């Protein structure tokens, strides 16, 4: 058995953004279902590294306050699973909030990061850019990230614009169902 060189980042799928009927993104049900499939598939392959990212903010800046119901993750690392990490952040970019994270991942042999989660144009895009800047290959899972409608654009339009911007920087855009089939076939995240 060889270790995977790929890590899955599950970014900010938290109660306020995905579950709370007053605060959640418009496509929360689709996103939660897709992310659930992604996490389950990643856990089934040999041996995955899954990084669960949890955003926190001060009460005056938003509702994702440490310890609150809104702050809780929808998907959590399995207790005792050595290849599942919980990483907290206070900025959009997980790598900026955790300066040693890139080195830690590289020491584990990680060269490729796959991203999914909430909000496409905020933390998913910023973390993907941070991974690219740190020298990782990056793939973003189409239909496994989403956001709010904003500035006259639908969440879907924003998702596609984020994918185009990341692709222009060298990231790959992979429909999540295609990724699941590849992982199953290879018995590894790829």
From TrEMBL:
A GO molecular function annotation here is: hydrolase activity
Q: Record keywords: RNA-binding included?
A: no
Q: Which family does it belong to?
A: Belongs to the isochorismatase family.
- Its protein name is Isochorismatase-like domain-containing protein
Write down the species: [Torrubiella] hemipterigena
Q: What residue stretches are annotated with the Isochorismatase-like domain? A: 6-161
The record's PANTHER family line, in alphabetical order, gives:
ISOCHORISMATASE-LIKE DOMAIN-CONTAINING PROTEIN, PEROXYUREIDOACRYLATE/UREIDOACRYLATE AMIDOHYDROLASE-RELATED
- Superkingdom is Eukaryota
Q: Which InterPro entries match?
A: Isochorismatase-like_dom (IPR000868), Isochorismatase-like_hydrls (IPR050272), Isochorismatase-like_sf (IPR036380)
UniProt keyword annotations, A-Z: Hydrolase
Record has Transit peptide as a keyword: no
């Amino acid at each position: 058995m060889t270790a995977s060189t790929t890590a899955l980042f599950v970014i900010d799928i938290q109660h306020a953004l995905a579950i709370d009927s007053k605060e959640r993104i418009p496509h929360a049900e689709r996103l939660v279902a897709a992310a659930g499939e992604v996490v389950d598939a990643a856990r089934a392959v040999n041996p995955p590294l899954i990084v669960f990212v949890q955003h926190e903010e001060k009460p005056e800046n938003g509702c994702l306050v440490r310890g609150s119901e809104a702050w809780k993750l929808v998907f959590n690392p399995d207790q005792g699973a050595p290849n599942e990490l919980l990483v907290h952040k206070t900025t959009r970019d997980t790598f900026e909030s955790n300066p040693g994270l890139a080195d830690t991942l590289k020491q584990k042999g990680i060269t490729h990061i796959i991203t999914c989660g909430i909000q496409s144009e905020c933390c998913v895009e910023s973390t993907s850019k941070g991974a690219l800047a740190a020298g990782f290959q990056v793939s973003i899972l189409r239909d496994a990230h989403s956001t709010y409608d904003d500035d006259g654009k639908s969440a879907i339009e924003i998702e596609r614009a984020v994918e185009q911007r990341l692709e222009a920087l060298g990231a790959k855009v992979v429909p999540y169902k295609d990724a699941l089939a590849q992982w199953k076939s290879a018995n590894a995240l790829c």
